[in-house]
Amino acid sequence: MFGNLSDRLVETFKGLRAKGKLSAADIDATLREIRKALLDADVALEVVKTFIAAVRERALGDEVSKALNPAQQVVQIVQEELIVILGGEARRIQFAKNPPTVIMLAGLQGSGKTTLAGKLAKWLKDQGQTPLLVACDLQRPNAVNQLQVIGERVGVPVFAPEVGNGKGNPVSVAKDSIKHAKQKQYSVVIVDTAGRLGVDEELMKQANDIRKATDPDEVLFVIDSMIGQDAVNVAKAFEDGVGITGVVLTKLDGDARGGAALSVAQVTGKPILFSSTGEGMDAFEPFYPDRMASRILDMGDILTLIEQAQKSFDEQEALVMAEKMAKDAFTLEDFLDQMQQLRKMGSLKSMLSMMPGAGKLKGQLDNIDEKEIDHTEAIIRAMTPKERRDPKILNGSRRLRIAKGSGMTVTDVNSVVNRFEQAAKMMKVMAKGGNPGIPGMPQGMGAMPRPQVKKDKGKKKAKSGNPAKRAAEISGIEPPKQGNSGSAFGLGG
Amino acid sequence: MAGLKFWRKKDQAADQAVAVEPEVIESKEVLETQIPVADVITPQELVKVELPKRNLSKGFKAVFSRIKFDVENLEELEDVLIQADFGVTASETIVSEVKAMAKKSGAKTESELKGILTELLTQKLSRTDASLNLDSGTQPYVILVVGVNGAGKTTTIGKLANYLVEGGAKVTLGAADTFRAAAVEQLETWASRSGSEIVKPVSEGQDPAAVAYETVERAIANGSDVLIIDTAGRLQNKQGLMDELGKIRRVIEKQLPISEVLLVLDSTTGQNAMTQAKAFTEVASVTGIALTKLDGSAKGGIVYAIQDQLNIPVKLVGVGEGINDFGFFDAKEFAIGLVGEN
Prior knowledge:
heterodimer; A: 493 residues; alpha/beta; Four Helix Bundle (Hemerythrin (Met), subunit A); Rossmann fold; 434 Repressor (Amino-terminal Domain); 8-stranded mixed sheet; 22 helices; B: 342 residues; two-stranded antiparallel ribbon; 12 helices
């Protein structure tokens, strides 16, 4: 399988380090990799072409040749350009001056319209609106029924005069629903429509008729984030056939890279308003262009991660820690401290999922047992202060006592001690090699206990002894070859 | 690759026609006291039912019609393949093979090149194992249907059930999608449209494995030829849900071997379809793919790479919402559909 973009760029940049400057040919080689990454992420070909041309132009300019790390600069440009296309800031729903605000949903079959209708209704209700769901999908068997069940779940009334299953006229249902909403003073009307193909002219006309009948304030185009090259055709068809005001990207909790977001945004010029991220009725959030850009490139949400790390990891403490490590005075007590620092940053899983290259890890992320950290903590807490400072004194009987005291087994105790020793050794090497240079991201994090992921191999190699390479690893640009770009935390993939 | 080869027990239809209530109960008792495995019937006792082939009668517009081929400039061909979701790697391989074949045969004209491409795709996509595995003789045949959310599982089941019933098979459906709102009702509608029996969960959110188990039990008891189990859509990176699928599979296999695990893939899906195929194969040993929504503008080119890399045949294609809108996958038709007639 393909490595992620970071891995491939490392390959491309291999010969460039000594040069420090990128030639036009170097840039083209880089762009070829980026082109492939975008295509693998299902960005439409025509969009990729325009995009690469734009990046190339900028990359050949001054900003790259003068940059300290030109390769990194190219990636930076790519990321920036992606964010520009995806829309700088998430737009909000446009509410009508005179209620009800009408929101119409349209999209292909199976894109997730009905589920989204429920989420949107709940979200609006939580904001103090009084939404009404309208069942205009009279095509798919029991779509009406599905909307009714969902409406009940989120506590929002459903306007469903027709049973559906191929019977009834969706246009008149839509029309009546507006009357009904006005009468009963609902503030928002959400019109769920049947899934339709872009090439189905008859059904597209029907969608347009629903639009005319309801005069919606928003027509949201609902699109599955797993969609491939066809995204452009579909988006064009809906834009031309119905006219859309915004886009909602669904099933983003999957592992698709979601290049379609880029295609749709580029082709329609319409903003992506929301992303839908699960089957629960709360799994719904505003769209973040920067995160999406990283996801498409499979570069991880490194910026967010650094931000969080900066917030919660006290720099003073970090310095003290770094000194300790250099002096080989790192103890189990510090180990425990660090773990608590990490806890402040949020759950291990959510943190890991932001790491570059986490695409590969994702399957395993769900397997991570957060309890492992609790267990490690329990074991260290069951030690005496003396033992924590000097783990060398831990003989068999002490280990047995600790195991009993923490409710774990001696094997568990052994593994914690072993891991600690490895981590301490690694950090010593690292600390002597100099600080990787990201404030608030001290090397000490390498001491994190390893979560129970299936594959453990390659962990020891996770830290490079070369300071320059390591700095790059941590900044997420050039991870080691194993794709272990999450290794800033010593977590082998 | 004709229609569906389908072996069923001799005279069973006649037996069923005269079957009276007590007999059914009796057979149920017998099954309960014995190890609940259906009789393995020797081929002589089976009659072959040849179901008619279904063509991709509508939809499926050629994508190649709008470009011009040139032996010197085959990059455009690569672009078209990429746009049909073949993926970068497969597209590059196909183009280089077309180049080599063109060089060998001295083909130059557009029509010659198209011929080469059609032939190449047909040859690569053709398989001997593309029909449904319904001829082992161990009845009822179990078809487990899996896939991500919104791929078209329930609709595919409805169409397939109808087709089998039309061919004279007795079909029982199992509504093991106990998660999505109204999924059971949706399957029920298809059951009544197709004239199949349905086993529903006794309560909302019941363990889908339990429903699957009951479906098998019922299908054995009512003398079904085929039973099809619908499952909830699940994204392949949700470990818990994938484990659940593994459990459903194991529970079914306690009573009957599974003849077919159909992975339903939406043809609009891009490169993620490969990840889906891998993940579902890992937990549920997928034996075939049903490619849906081919009546749209998407081409589903990713199945080329899936067949090639994972060795899973495409068996069915869906081309619409109507009960007859599906067909058996035919490599040549697919290739011509992509490249266009000469």
